[in-house]
Description:
Radius of gyration: 18 Å
Oligomer: single chain
Amino acid sequence: MKRNKFLIFYITFILLLPLMLLSKNKSLFVTPKSGVSLHKNNSADSKILYIIPFNSKINLIEQKVYINDMVTVKGIPGNWIKVQYGNKLGYVFDGFLSEIKIDERVPIVGEYIMVTDLTKYNPSQLFIYKDKTFKYYINLCHGFGIVRGTYHVDGKTIKLKIKSSDFNIAKKDKVELVFQIDKNYLRLQAVIPDESIGCDFMPETLFIKK
């Protein structure tokens, strides 16, 4: 009986997986200096309607995160989303958009996405805020969790100190994530104490800035 319940849960999860993390009515900002193309349809081959300038604010109209069918453009994984810019409607690749507005005076601030062989299935995201706090959507192998905390930048290193989480972390008040800052990447160097948390914390894990 327990096995049948597990199978039902598993099949339901797989069926729903392609449409996880649906969201709308959210503001996003353009991250490439060259701007981002607004397309007529959700494809890079569709007609370009307009080039939205760098750091412009756009409104998310519809987002369907197809976790098992993401695409990668210029090394950044993502999906096509429907947006509005002024009176223009169209589709944009969300790998070139961020919830955090770019501040060139504070280059570490921004939204980062994990880049591994599993990225097309379950990319984790790291948000570094201007007020010295962070939010991290973590792949837990069986789902996602969120941790929050504060960070400190020391030269080419950023250290993340976990303050809270929505899942169990042993001795979380002592856990610190150490990343090397490398241009548009954050490269995981160490987890202190040396413990595994979810599926993300592997040596040399990369997060690319959106």
